[in-house]
Amino acid sequence: MAKSGGSFKSAVELSAALSARKVSAVELMQDAIDRIERHDGKINAICVRDFDRALGAAREADAALARGERKPLLGLPVAIKESFNIAGLPTTWGFVPQKDFRPAEDALPVARIKEAGGVVLGKTNVPVGLADWQSYNDIYGTTNNPYDLGRTPGGSSGGSSAALAAGYCALAIGSDIGGSLRVPAFHCGIFAHKPTLNLCPARGETPPPLPALPREGDLAVIGPMARSAADLSLLLDIMAGPDPLDAGVAYKLDLPAARHQSLRDFRVLVIDSHPLLPTDRDVRGAIDKLATDLAKAGMTVARESALLPDFAETSRLYMRMLLGFLGAFFLPDELADSQARANRLSPGDHSLGAERLRGTVASHRAWVLDAGRRAGLRAQWRALFSSFDAVICPIMPTPAFPHDHLPEQDLRRISIDGTHYPYSDQLAWPGIATLPGLPATAVPLGLSKDGLPVGVQIVGPWLEDRTPLKLAELIEREFGGFVPPKMFDD
């Protein structure tokens, strides 16, 4: 099985094959190693290889299977984003001064994956500081998109998305504050899930050399990535639940079931436009086709609603709060420059760039007021989800764009149907779900006319992660999902 198409099978399928002894964990891992050694010179997704320990863990998994043991991930190859600590392996976040930092303990989500029987093959590439939709740094180089080596695989979890698209592993994990799970999933044609804020504890996904302490994210989350929607649920159930050192002292996880089990029972709002950032014809076309197909399948589909929060105000607020967080880590000279530029802003300038600048230098008082506005936004979403089960909308405005490593991101531009927009304004679409902390599942919808993946995100109600995940499964089952890159014909 591993030598004849097993590389692109789902984790659920591989788990069943392992239980039935149709394939061994060692065979799956050796197949993954062979593929990485054969193809990763071109893609550069796996930046830290841990093959010896992986083969040892695979042998242990086979022994456990022979004893009749069953665990959710037993024997399945898993790739881990470089930003997560794995004992004995470097964690750098792409920072050259940290290239030799090696934590002594696994991050909590890594420990949970191993406890569930997952076999970690290594770590996947990231941008410096996880701060880009491209995945390159001076330690590990550039990761390329398996559908077009001249384009980005997305970021910051771009190594994980490229590894999945290339068939190196069945499962991977990443993190997301500006779309870093959903954007690479979109650009590489795979599935990913941004969980509800703080559903999955992130202890150990920590900038080196800081200690791995329990913490709550203000916007950031960690989550699963896979080639099928059902695999997302499999891995989410391992990652989710309070940190035993923190909230787990008192709380246990009990996620509500999906609202519905069949397509025709769902009520969805489909959106393809944003007042501050358009989508291109490929993205709009894919969304329009999906809306039509869903309606034909008997689903209740709306294209507009007065209940939908104002996307323009949402994006402005998100830009301020995101940069209020990120700006805390700016060096003094960077912060002084940001303050000087913010002082020159016109009070009437409400461009997304201006709001990012204001957020960078905002006072704690301003942040508290914005947090109150966010609470109001969450109330709007609660009201909307009394009439709809999910909102389907874009993840990014265009399919994967060519590599652009211009050092100043403020000088980069993204072309949308021939019109150029500030590169960082692309935050607007992933921010729709990030700001209120809502769950959002990235779903591929096939390939554009240029052979590049396109897809959508399904935004669900607070803590009802199983609802967008179930809808993603149903869409995959009815209309297809992951399409392997043409460069892989073996």
Automatic annotation (TrEMBL):
Pfam families given in the database record: Amidase
Top-rank taxon, per record: Bacteria
PROSITE patterns linked to this entry: AMIDASES
Residue ranges of domain Amidase in the record: 27-467
One Gene Ontology cellular component annotation held by this UniProt entry: endomembrane system
SUPFAM superfamilies per record: Amidase signature (AS) enzymes
TM stretches of this protein: none
InterPro entries per the UniProt record, alphabetical: Amidase_CS (IPR020556), Amidase_dom (IPR023631), AS_sf (IPR036928), FAAH2 (IPR052739)
Coiled coil: none
NCBIfam families reported for this sequence: PRK06170.1 (NF004816)
Protein name: Amidase
Source species of the chain: Bradyrhizobium sacchari
Upper taxonomic lineage: Bacteria, Pseudomonadati, Pseudomonadota, Alphaproteobacteria, Hyphomicrobiales
